[in-house]
Design a protein that fits this description.
Layout (H helix, E strand, L loop, with lengths): L1 E4 L1 H8 L6 H12 L3 E4 L1 H13 L6 H15 L1 E3 L19 H12 L2 E5 L8 E2 L2
Parallel strand pairs: 1-2, 1-4, 2-3, 4-5
Helix pairs in contact: 1-2, 1-3, 3-4
Amino acid sequence: MKYLLDINTLIALLNAQHIHHGKASEWYVKNRGGCGFLTCSITELGFVRNSVQGGYVPDIPTAQFALAALKQSGGFKLLPDDLGADSLPKYVTKAKDTTDGHLLALAKRHGAKLATLDTGIPGAELIK
């Protein structure tokens, strides 16, 4: 199975002080052997922005370094993103769900599942 990690999953995985770091790390280690992990421009940029704004890292280069280290150690692949707004799943009816819906559709297009800590995304892999 291939998993596209959403922004919250990347943040929790890479920041030891995050409330869900333990469960994200446990899920990652459990799935690392037989799975492929994916990112895309949205998840990588969201990780960098939120890591700095959230105070997990002091600056953009530090966030970039943390993400690069994870990608090198875990066999990550960067997905190309050529989906437009017309590809949003039917469940997306509120503006706040557009990014999650887009990531879900992108994962599906590439034969993967969206891995998330967020509930309420139909068809996503909820990290417990």
